[in-house]
């Protein structure tokens, strides 16, 4: 799975004896997510031995129904092992969530390999199954939310980092972290500002020489682009009409465009003098109209539409 988006939100792995519970869980998740449940998702004529592993790889989460029947279910145990391997591979960013069906619990000795250390849920009634489905849906919503940005200051109260504290970002910011203990951050900022001013104004006073710096022409067109998704299924929406309200293009016409098969849209030919935020209206038959206010020049604006 090379892309960031998964074709399926959930893949349900279960023993044949637990099919009724698996079907109930599928019905609870289906209205608000894309769920792969073999008895529904496989099409007539599909090679199930190829489609099942492919669907699991293309899923964000494998939900494993663990019961006293699992130990005798050959294919369910194969899917558990596949899920553990996917979760260990950072390329897939796969998550495994076990749901233990009473009397099976997470502390029993016969829990399948790899699931004992996974945080899961124990259920013994339909009410608890509904609660588990709700928690799974909340998991998908949380996965879509951007991670909070960490802000740290030094002993003088100066902001020294406005990025998530990951190993890659720590290496990117190492000059500030290693030097600010010796030189006040104010002097570092003044030095950076001096370098920027020298790069920007140097060619104007001393000639451009062999510099590769290229100043864009004043009449460069302004662009606005992004993607439209279904608010519930999070799938791209095609043929959505997008209009910039109270805005005229170079021909003094109201700019409009349609999203393509991947939900992508792009406004071009906007006046070079245009700037600031605009009122973007999105509409499609069967969906509620949407209004957002992106900044001109944004190339990754996201629009979501909710069905009526």
Structure, briefly:
This protein is an alpha/beta fold and 308 residues long. It has helices spanning 19-29, 38-41, 48-57, 74-88, 126-144, 167-172, 174-179, 185-206; strands at residues 8-13, 35-36, 59-66, 95-101, 121-123, 152-153, 159-161, 222-230, 241-245, 256-258, 264-270, 279-283, 290-292, 301-305.
What does this structure look like?
The strands form four sheets. The protein has a five-stranded parallel β-sheet, sandwiched between helices. Strands 10-9-12-13 form a four-stranded antiparallel β-sheet, with no helix packed on it. Helix 1 packs across helix 5 (126-144). The chain has helices at 19-29, 38-41, 48-57, 74-88, 126-144, 167-172, 174-179, 185-206, and strands spanning 8-13, 35-36, 59-66, 95-101, 121-123, 152-153, 159-161, 222-230, 241-245, 256-258, 264-270, 279-283, 290-292, 301-305. With 308 residues, it is of the alpha/beta class. The protein contains eight helices and 14 strands. Residues 1-5, 162-181 and 206-218 have low confidence and may be disordered. The chain has two domains: 8-144, Rossmann fold (3-Layer(aba) Sandwich); 222-305, Carboxypeptidase-like, regulatory domain (Immunoglobulin-like, Sandwich), CATH 2.60.40.1120.
